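User: what does the whole thing look like in 3D?
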Amino acid sequence: MRVLTPSGLDHALALLAEFESSLTPLAGGTDLLVSWPHQNSDEVGFLDLSPLRAEHSAPRLEQDALVLSMLTTYWDVIASEEVRTEFPLLLAAALKVGAVQIQSAGTWAGNIANGSPAADGVPVLMAYGAEVVLRSTRGEVRVPLDRYYLGYKQSVRALDQLIVEIRVPRRKREIEWFHKVGARFAQAISKLGVAVTRDETGHRVVVNSVAPTVVRCRALEDHLDQGGKIESVEQVRALLSFDIAPIDDIRSTSRYRESVLSRLLYFYLRKANLRKANG
Amino acid sequence: MSLDRVDGLDKLSGKSAFVDDLTVPGCLFGGTIRSPVARGRIRKIHFSTAVDWSDFVIVDHRDIPGSNEVALIESDQPALASTNVRHLHEPVLLLAHSKLHRLREGLRSIRVEIEAAPPLFDVEAQPTKEMLQHGSDNVFKRIDIRKGDPASVFAKASRVIEGTYRTGSQEHVYLETQGMIAHQEGETLVVRGSMQCPYYILDALTIAFDRPKERFRVIQCPLGGGFGGKEEYPSVVAIHAALLAEKAGRPVKIIYDRQEDMAVTTKRHPSRVRHRTAVDDDGIILAMEIDILFDGGAYVTLSPVVLSRGTLHATGPYRCDHVHVHGEAKLTNSPPYGAFRGFGAPQTLFAIERHMDVIARDLGLDPGELRRRNLLCQGDTLATGQKVQDGVDLTALLARGEELAGVSLATQEYAAFNRSHPYLRRGVGRATFYHGAGFTGSGETHLASEVWVEGLADGRVRLLTAQTDMGQGTMTILAQIAGETLSVDPRSIEVVTPDTSLVPNSGPTVASRTAMVVGKLIEDGCRELQRILDSGSGPPSGKDFQNALELHHRENPGDLLRVSRSYQTPPGQNWDEVSYQGDAYACYSWAAHLAHVEVDLRTFQVRVTDYVALQEVGRVLNEVLARGQIQGGVAQGLGWTLLEEVILENGAMKNHQMMNYIIPGSGDLSPIRVFFEEIPSPSGPGGAKGIGELPLDGPAPAIINAVCHALSASIREIPLTPEVLMEFLGGKE
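Assistant: Here's the predicted 3D structure for the full assembly of 1012 residues, as structure tokens:
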């Protein structure tokens, strides 16, 4: 086993450039260490990012965006009054991720990078229109989070790149909602989760655990953007079917995921519609 | 009185050393190579040539000096498979190495080649000839309880109501996984670790090694939970650690990690119970036919006695003159199912208590009213003919429970709420039940438990028993019983940690028997000590007792003042093991549990919103501990009912991680409101009865009855996960 400890961000990027294929960046470790005793080989390499924590963990509010840093944890968001007030869905998602130990170790960037379709932090960031800032010794690029994933556990991130920032635009939102369905009230991996926002760019409906990646439900978004009404669970289910492909796994069934997602969205959107009509 | 836990501070402060905390110089780490298939014949064991095996200790069945078995009720379970395997993960080979990562490398680098045979996973299926693996029919145990003449009643009955009920398995999820350390001390093999029953391990070692008891010493370490999961399984780990240690000539530690522990160790028996009940138009039960089937897994282990308790609780606390209960525990190629808090009773009580609501619905009666018309009264007899005469008034108990839970008001409110809410539905449900305390039938007589009470020279008292404290408070309760009997400060009582070289065999720590049976022996022992120290002015107590004790030792220097007390069958208690007639238990604890639930028809999740647990357990010895037992049992029962699904693949648990096997967290629990009624019992110290298992019996039926009330449905299976409920409702809103 090899663990490399960088002295700073530039050093970290240089090490990644040198050893790219054999090094996995290790932030909070809450995904990588889960099955530690059951790994198939001891021949593993890690780039330990913890020395960078002091400089790269505080979230900050810029003029036009909230910037989550490379090592910003869920707890950093929970603890920041200005962040949780302006971005309540980030708080809602953070509170649903594990217990305090996980919340204070796990990072938003790590949640994106690990690429689990069940990631709890990703739907709310995507619903807020977040961008991922990737940096390597070759330079820096910005990618919208909804174009970051290419498939199951596959992304545009090259092996020498680190997610150094997540930029969440500051916009006035008319609705915002997050609902996670886990096997218990808290500290459970999502069976499904959904985040909904509406701002001047339109609706965003983002779901997890119902496709190989966290996805936007574009057909439903378009329907809503065009002023379409929400009339039945069946109608929502039909609109979702263009964008989701749930499967049976150890945590739930495809039928459950599809049915419950349709129901949750139906009851929520119907209420939101009513509010809009009344308001 | 609620004495603080005597071990509380050590555990809170991390001072208690659990087995994995112990560092033994020169200790090797041990691990287990297991069968990769559910059934077959071992062909060959392949050792990877990429690994240097010279510094590994390797043990297989040929290294077992005595009989290759994990001795329990029968001898069918091998300690290490020799020719055949009967379940996935069955132990085949043991490895030890001084470095943990090398051990893991070794475990990854051995392949057991097996000629697979067709496995049997469906306990309800009639086994074909090639599926027979135990006797002529795969039945481990068959039990019949008969009373009256049910056949003639059914023949004439105008109403017969039937139902089939199923319960799933359950994993114990004790916080501390299984673990043992074994080492040689001169001629003695010393085994210490996480266990409920030191003498079970001692017996298993003597047979596997074919050596007298004196050559072994079994020591209990502080225990991080058991729930029955450390009743029989630790014998397997102990034999394995001892085999490795003897071959290595060095200490060996085996600690299961969570995944291994969940995958390979025992779980609650899955069940299927069929009820056929004849009732009259007023809802009076005329006759009952109950057919019970438990999945025993691949070896007999404790299935016969689990089935026994299951059959003895199957009728519920109801009066009925014509009963036939038939029970079977059968083989499948799953890892053996085993002891789990409740021991068969939660399964059969779920069935009868759901069935009572099914009958009530069929008759258009309120489920509480149906129960009131049939609950046992003083002088009535159970199915075995045992007479109820302990003074409990079950009708009043249920009425008080319904009042505490606000049932009548809630029923009205919920009806209105359910008509108007778009997706939430509320309901309330109840269960009335009992749990026999102590070993079944003549079990306590066979055990003949022995305790020692010693009066020390410094005026203190020392208690020696084999009872283990697994978090339930054994040490505290025993100290408290002695302290109260002698009127001395219970904190001055020394409770010796079980070590078979020091303590007598007072039986296993199971079956809600510790406080009641062993506590009673302690109480008797203390009284005997008082009689010995009586100088003519009556048995001394309090300061007088301590003075008398000190005086005794001054006058008799070096005297070992030890009182031994053994279990005596109470006069008039009779049990016939063949006909299953007589006094099945020394006494019973009684309860009425009520649950309020809210079902979310968006997600099909069930939330328990309020829970009332009312029970009659004789005198409550330590109210804080007793409440803890009840609340913990209810939480564990709620998990079994709604969340905990043991998903099987090739007969064994597939979701063997806490990430995917969901036990309730604090957010999933409602308030659990605990109430006691106390009718002193002659069976236990100061009038106490057993309490440990009772609370596991109530939640499943109370909660599912409430869900059925909320949805006007008739659900007959647990666990009721949201996925199952969704399919059950067929997408209806």
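In plain terms: The domain at 271-439+580-729 of chain B is CATH 3.30.365.10 (Aldehyde Oxidoreductase; domain 4). The mean pLDDT of chain B is 97.
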